[in-house]
């Protein structure tokens, strides 16, 4: 089937299988920041935005994106780079494999919750796993980026 989507502000028409998942479809079309770890909604690596809200694209059928706005980290470069610099300065990035999905979730948090508490941050990021860092550096970086104590 054909779907019409807007990806990072640009319209696109894609041919997709009925059972194709959005993560794979995005990768097929060159959005290689979209990574996969579990394919079962458990790790957060595949996080993108659909109409401005974060979704786990490994378990969203591609046809569900028909007529909608998809945002990947390629479409949020200035904000992503600003936060990534803070992450690196806090020593919160090691292999970096989790970073695109993690950053997409942090940028969504910034839009959705003003002045979040540490508990709010932990709750919001609960679906984004990192096998390397132990999360303390990430928490410091998020607080610095959001300007919260
Ligand atoms: S690959 Fe989608 S949540 Fe893990
Ligand atoms: S930095 Fe390696 S998985 Fe997060």
TrEMBL record:
Keyword Oxidoreductase included in the entry's annotation: yes
Domain 2Fe-2S ferredoxin-type span(s) in chain numbering: 1-76
Keyword Lyase listed: no
Record-level Gene Ontology MF annotations: 2 iron, 2 sulfur cluster binding; metal ion binding; oxidoreductase activity
Keywords per UniProt: 2Fe-2S, Iron, Iron-sulfur, Metal-binding, Oxidoreductase
Taxonomy, superkingdom: Bacteria
Cited InterPro entries: 2Fe-2S-bd, 2Fe-2S-bd_dom_sf, 2Fe-2S_ferredoxin-like_sf, 2Fe-2S_ferredoxin-type, Beta-grasp_dom_sf, Diverse_Oxidoreductases
A Pfam family this chain is assigned to: Fer2
Protein's name according to its UniProt entry: 2Fe-2S iron-sulfur cluster binding domain-containing protein
Taxonomic lineage of the native organism: Bacteria, Bacillati, Bacillota, Negativicutes, Acetonemataceae
